[in-house]
Amino acid sequence: MLKTWAQALKPPPLLSVSEWADQFRFLSPESSAEHGKWHNSRAPHTVAVMDALSPHDPCRKVVAKFSAQSGKTEILNNFAGYIMAQNPGPTLVVQPNQRPMGEAFSKDRLAPMIRDTPAISAKVIEAKGKDKKNTIFHRTFPGGHLTIAGASSPAQLASRPIQFLLCDEIDRWVPTKEGDALNLAIKRTLTFWNRKILMVSTPTLDGRGIDAQYEDTL
């Protein structure tokens, strides 16, 4: 009995994001032409980015300036999966808008990943019916939650403190009347010493958006 209790209280193994993805992540048929087990060897250029998102890496802001269809969204997905299954905390995923892009991300990317990756589905409560705690825009799991917001709505970016901020396609974000959406979102992470901010996008504007964020990290 003591052995069983000790095993239950044992913390999860210290894995990097890429190690976790290689061991546990499954690609879904809705989002990948080659669905099934994720293998880092098929996308080696994503490993360094994922490892920088790991808790033991000192990086606080990680910027992935990738061309279209080159794996940047799967980096974001793997990081979200890692948080839910391995390193929980309050998480915000920001899409250019909540509808239709945030909704599409939730239905076409997040929900299939949760369904097809047992390490995640064992932790995340399925969104059903009138359950206000779990909707297409908000999922809860032991030790944290994941909310999907739109950069076009400043009100969605100015609420609770966030440990993990995942910003998708920031070159498609538009300015708001209440200021720069990216800065508003980043301010939500400042109370966490162990925060992680991920920004991914295909570059479209020289000196702005993901290009400016990438240069700022050099």
Could you provide a short overview of the structure?
The protein is of the alpha/beta class. Helices cover 34% and strands 17% of the residues.
Provide tags for this entry.
alpha/beta; 218 residues; two-stranded antiparallel sheet; 8 strands; 34% helix
Topology at a glance:
Layout: H1 2-9, H2 17-24, E1 26-27, E2 36-37, H3 47-52, E3 61-65, H4 72-85, E4 90-95, H5 98-116, H6 118-121, E5 138-141, E6 144-150, E7 164-168, H7 181-187, E8 196-201, H8 209-217
Parallel strand pairs: 3-8, 4-6, 4-7, 7-8
Antiparallel strand pairs: 1-2, 5-6
Largest sheet entry: 6 strands, mixed
User: What's the overall geometry?
Assistant: globular
Structural class: alpha/beta
* Estimated helix fraction: 25-40%
What does this structure look like?
With 218 residues, the protein is α/β, with parallel strands linked by helices. 34% of the residues lie in helices and 17% in strands. It is built from eight helices and eight strands, in the order ααββαβαβααβββαβα. It has a six-stranded mixed β-sheet, with helices on both faces. A hairpin with a 2-residue loop joins strand 5 (138-141) and strand 6. Helix 2 crosses helix 4. The longest helix is centred in the middle third of the chain and has 19 residues, at 98-116. The protein is globular and about 40 Å long. The model has no long low-confidence stretch (mean pLDDT 90).
